[in-house]
Amino acid sequence: MTPDFWIERWKKGEIGFHMGAVHEFLPKHWPHLKVAPGSAVFVPLCGKSHDMVWLAAQGHRVIGIELSPLAVDDFFQEQGLEADTRSTGGLVVRSAGPYTIWCGDIFDLPAEATAEVAAVYDRAALVALPPSLQPRYAKKLVEILPASAPILLAGLVYPDGEISGPPFSTPLAQVAALFGGNYAIRLAEVRDGLAQSQNLKARGVSSLEETAYILERKTRSLWD
Fold first, then answer.
1. What is the CA radius of gyration of the chain?
2. pTM, rounded to two decimals
3. Long-range contacts of the stretch 50-59 (C-beta < 8 A, 24+)
4. Whose CB among 45, 88, 90, 209 lies 3.0–4.6 Å from 157's, allowing a Cys bridge?
5. 99, exposed or middle or buried, with CB in 10 Å at 0-12, 13-18, 19+?
6. What pLDDT digit, counting tens, does each position of 83-128 carry?
C-alpha cells in the first residue's frame, strides 16, 4: 500500500472512513489525558476530520499530518479559513487559526513539527496502516513526540481474514506489541461497532469491536 492509494481515494471521493461528526470516544476519553488548554495536540493522518474542530474548541492548537492535498484544502475551506502556505523539507505546511497541517508522508515529518505537542489523538492512522508499516509508525511516534505526551488511540477489532483492510484490525495484543516497550497501555473502552459500520458489514465483517486505548510513556502514570 503506497501513499498514492490514499491520494487516489480522496480524488475519487472514496472516503467512507471520513466521519461526518466527532468520534464519540474523543469527548468521552480525552479528559483522562489532562491536557491543558492552549497546549498543542497532534492528529496523525488527520484528513479533514471534525475531531480537529472539537480539539480546537477545547482551546488546543491542532497540528495534523495528511497525505492528501485535497483533504487539507477541503478542511480549511469547510472551516471558512484562508490558510497561509509554506514549504519545508519537502512538505507543505498550511496554517490558519488554531490549525497547522503538514501535507505529506508522516514518515517524513520532522521532529520540530511536534516538539511542543502535549498529547496525541489517533483515530485514523494506525488502523489505516498495514501490519508491515505499523512498527515503523510506532517507532516514528517515539522518535518525534515529547516523552510527556500521552496518546488516545481508537482501534478496531474484527475476525482475522474476513477482510484484507484497510481498516486493519488492532487488537490489544497488537497494540501492546507495537507500543508496549515504550508505553503503558490501558484499554479504556470496548463497544460493539458493527451496527454503525455498514460498509464493513457489507464487505463481510461478521463482528466488530471499537476500542479506545490510552497510551502513556513509562515515565509517569495518569492512573495514579
1. 17
2. 0.91
3. 50/19, 50/20, 50/21, 50/22, 51/19, 51/22, 51/23, 51/26, 51/121, 51/123, 52/99, 53/22, 53/79, 54/22, 54/26, 54/27, 55/26, 55/30, 55/121, 56/97, 56/98, 56/99, 58/30
4. 209
5. buried
6. 999 999 889 999 999 999 999 999 999 999 999 999 999 999 999 9
